[in-house]
Amino acid sequence: MPLGQRAGDKSDSRYCGAETEFDDDMPQVLTHNLSGGFDFVVAPLLDPNYRPSMVKKNNNGTAVLPFAASDLVVAPSQWSSHVVGKISSWIDLDSKDEQLRKDSEITLKQEIAWASHLSLQACLLPFPRGASCGNYARCVNQILQGLNNMQLWLRVPLVKSDLMEDDTKHENSCHMSEDVLDSWELWNSFRLLCEHHNQLSVALDVLSSLPSNNSLGRWFGEPVRAAIIHTESFLTNARGYPCLSKRHQKLMAGFFDHSVQIVISGRLLHNVSPGGMQSSDTNNDVHLEGTPRHLLRPYLDYVAYLYQRMDPLPEQERIELGYRDFLQSPLQPLMDNLEAQTYETFEKDTVKYSQYQRAVCKALLDKVPDENASTTTIVLMVVGAGRGPLVRASLQAAEETGRKLKVYAVEKNPNAVVTLHSLIKLEGWEKLVTIVSCDMRCWDAPEKADILVSELLGSFGDNELSPECLDGAQRFLKEDGISIPSSYTSFIQPVTTSKLYNDVKSHKDLEHFETAYVVRLHRVAKLAASQPVFTFAHPNFSQQSNERYKKLHFQIPSETGSAMVHGFAGYFDAVLYKDVHLGIEPTTATPNMFSWFPIFFPLRTPLTVALGSLIEVHFWRCCGSTKVWYEWCVTSPSASAIHNCGGRSYWVDCCCCDCGKEGGGWRMGSALISAAAVASGEQGGRSDRRSLIAHSITIEIGTKRMRKMDERGRREFELGNRSYLGRWQPVVIVVGCYLLLGAANGTNMCHRWIASGQSSDTRAYVIGPPSTLLYSNGKDILEGVFEHASRGNGHQREFVRRCKLSIGQRCHNAVDFSEMERRCWASKGTSLYHCKHVPCSQQAVP
Where are its TM segments located (predicted)? Predict the structure, then answer.
C-alpha cells in the first residue's frame, strides 16, 4: 500500500520497500513483505555463497545456477512490480585477485541476464570496493549497451567526512585531508566511465550521520531513484518509538518531493510491542490475520507519518507537474503568432497583471497631480497588447487613481486583434481605446505617449527581444515619458542537472547543446548563488548598443565538496516602475507567478569542479541584422568550447518589418506563377503559363529559421499566411525554366528552390518589390539560393554550376540590378529585373 494520500502527488515516492536477505522461497518473501505494508522488496537473486569457479558441472559441462526462484513460482507481473534485484555484494571487479575478479565479472553478467529475463524494473549494484573502479564501470557499461528498459541502481553511501554545519571546533579549517572519502566523487567517476548513461541511477545509503546541507544538495541534481534508510539511522523518542533527527526529516522531505522511493534496511532495534505501535493511517495497515507482523513495521509507520505530514502540493505546482524538467524552445515573438491557448494561459497569471496595475497607478500619480486630474488626459500605449490584459490593467489603474486615460493598443498578431476588437466592444471602451494592427517598430503614431507599457520579457529578460522592440517603439514616447518596465536584469547560476543533460544528449547532435531551453527546473542542484549578467534600461534615448558581454566568477562553497556543472540556469528580475518589480530570480522571485520558467544553457561537456576551484564563465549577447543570439563558454577550471558561435544553432529572429509600406504584403500563389510565366516569356522560353504550372511539382518556402520551426512541429507553412507576408518581401527568381521562390529581407533571404524542367538557357530574372531588390542589390539573394541548392543532389549541383557560369563567378560578378530594365507588373508596384546575360562560352568551366 502507498505511504498515504497527498493531494496532487502521483509520484513513485509514495511507495516504500524493504531490503531482504537471500531466501529461495521467493513467494513467501513477497507474501510476508507485501502483507506487512511494503510495496516492493529489494532481494538477492542469487545465493551469496555461489562462486562460478567452485561450481561442479555435470556431464554436459553445465550447472544449474542457485537463483532465488524461477519465473514459474512467481507470476511475471509480481516480478516486474514488486521485486528489485539485488546483485551479490561480494563481487569485486577491480580486485587484484584474478580469480575473484573473473568470478565477479561472470556473476554480474549472469545476475543481470536473469533479472532481464524476469523483466525486473531495476537491479541494485553494490558500491565499488575501492577508489579505482575502471573494470567494474567497463563491465556495467557493456551491460548497459544491450540492456532493455531495466534501470541499474548503483548503491552509494551518503558519506562525506567534511566540516559539518553544526561543528565549530574546526571552523577555521578550509582544507580536507587526503584520506577523506567523498562518495559523490566515486559516483561521478563511475558515471563518467559509463558515459552518463540514462539507465544508470543512484540508490543512496542513508546512515546515522549526514554531510553538510550543501553537500547533500548535490544529490538532488543526480539521478537518485531510491534512498535506503538503515534502522541504525533512527533515534528513539520518549515513548520508545523510532524517529529521525530534524536533518534526516528534512532530507526525507526532499526525497518525497523528488520522486525518490524509500527502502528500509536492517533489523529491529527498537523494543516496540505490537499492540502499542503507532499507525499514522489505518489504510496502511494490511496485516493479515495469522501472519507474523513485520519486524520493520514501526519504521514503515514512521516513514508514512513523515509523508502524510507534508503539505499538499499548491495548485500552481500541480499545474506545473507536467512541465518539470521538460525542455521547451523559447518563444520566437517576432516570427510566431501565439495561439489562443497560449494567451489564455498567460492571462491567468493574475499576480503579474496586478503588479503591472500597481506600476501604472504610480506612474499616473507621478504624471498628473491631483489638481489636474480632471483636465489632463494621459496618452498610454500598450505595445504588444495581445488579447488585452494590459489594456484592462491600465484602465483599472486609471479608474483607481481617478486619472483620464487615452489608450493605444498596438498588436501585430491579426488573430489577437480580432479578439481585441471584441473585448473593446464588449467592455464599452470604444472611446477610450484605439486598436492598431501593426508591428510596433513600423507604426507611425499620430501622437507621442506619456507612458509606454509592454510585456515583452522572456525567461532571461531580454531573450524575446524586448530591447530591440522597445528601442524601435520609443520614437513615439515623449522625452519625459515613462516606460513600464523601466529596466530588467538577467541572472545565471551553475547547476547540476543530470536529467536535462541526458535529455539534450539524447538528440546526438551539436545544435541541441547550443540551444537555450525554457524549463521548469526540478531535479537540479544549484551550486552557487546567482549573479547578474545583462541589464537593459528604457527608454534608451542614448541608443546604447544592445550587444553585451559579461565575465562571471562563481565559487562553490567549500562544504559542498566537488561538483559537476551540466549547464547554467538563467532568470530575470524586472523593475516595472520605482519599487514595483516582478521576476523569477530565486532570491527575489515574485510569489505565485507562473508566466515564466527559468532558462537553461547546457554545456556540451559537463564540467567537474574540484573542491576550492573557481568557475569562470563568459556570456555574450550578439546582434546581427536579422537575428540576436547568445554565446557562452567556461574558461576555468578547464576550458570549454564556445557554444553557439555566430548563432549557428540557436537565435531569436528579429527580421525587419515592411508591413506598413505600400507593396509590403503583395499576394503570392497564382501571382507568382504569373510572374514566372512573364519571365519565361521574356527569355523566349516557355511562355505558356499552364506548361510552367504543369512542370512545377510544388512551391516551398524555406529558410534556416523555418527549418528551426520544423523541429517545433510547424512543418506546414501556408503560402497565403498574412502574418508571414507581413514580415518578409516575397521574391521569385527564374533561371531559364527553373523557378526559385523565396523572400528577401535586407541582405538575407528565405531560400528553397524547385526545378520545373531543364534548359540550356540560364538567364536569370528576379521578380519582387523594388525596395527589397535595391536594398539587397540582388547579390545575397542569388548567393543564398545557390549556397542552399549546392548541397543538393547531382542534378541540383549541375544546375547551380550552370547558373554560376551564366551570371558570373561567385554568383554576382556579372550581375547588374541597375535601372537597365524595369517595368510595372501586376499593378502592385512590383518590378521585373533581369541579369545581364553572360553566355556560357565566355566563361571558363571550373
Answer: none
